Amino acid sequence: MTENCIKLALNPGVELKPGTKPGICRAVVIDAERRFDLTWDRFHRLHRTAEAIKLDMKASVSILDVGGFDGALALFLPHYEIDVLDPITTGGSGFGITVEPYDVVVSIDALEHVAPEERQSFLEQLCRVALHWCVINFPSSHTATAQELVFELTQNPLVKEHVEWPLPEMESVKQYLESSGFRVETQRHTSLAQWISQYLLQSVAPDLADKANRHLLRHHLDEPTGTLLYDLLIGQRIK
User: Fold this and answer.
1) Do residues 39 and 202 touch, judged by C-beta distance below 8 A?
2) I need a surface site. Which of 85, 177, 192, 211 has the fewest CB within 10 A?
C-alpha cells in the first residue's frame, strides 16, 4: 500500500465473533439495514452474490467467505450462517485453508488483489474447500481503461492494484473451475459508468456521496445498464 493507504471501516451492522477454527470468525448480523452504509460499488457486488446464493442454495448451507473483511455479505443473507476468513480482520490466509470443507465458498473482489503468479494457488484453495459451490466475483478485464482513469484521478491504492496487475480473465477463471469439477454459470453486472462517477464523488465529497449512494441503491438498484463492471462466476460441483 502507498502513503495514501485507505483505512477500511468495519460496517457496524455486523460483528465478527471468533470461534474455534483458527483464522475464521462467524459474521453475526446486528442490523441488516446498515447494508445501505456500504459504498455503492461494494453494495452491488455483495447484493448480486447474495441473490445468486438465495436463488440456488438453502439457508441451511455452510458458507465460508474468503477475503470478506468485515462479514458484510451477511447483511444480505441474515438467515444464513457465514464464516469469514480474511488476513486483515481474522488473521486467516486464503493460501492455506486448513478447515473442513464448507458447502459454499465465496470470494468477492479478492482475486484481483492476489499477485498474478499466485492466483492459481488461491483458486486451488477455494476449490479444495468448496464442497458443493464456489462463487467468485471480480472486476471485468475489459474495464482496465476505466480503472486507469479512476486511479489517475483518485490515487486510491485499492484501484492501484487493478492497474498495476492485470485483472483476472473471466474465461480463464471459468476454465479453472471447470477443470476442478464445477459446472459454471457466468454473469456480468453493475454499471461501469455509474461506478466511475460514484467513485469519484466518494473520493472528493464523501458526505455528498453517502446521500447520493443511498438514493441510487434504494431507487435505482436494478435499472438497465450499459457496459458492465463485474464478473460473477457461480460454480456448482458436478456430482
Assistant:
1) yes
2) 211
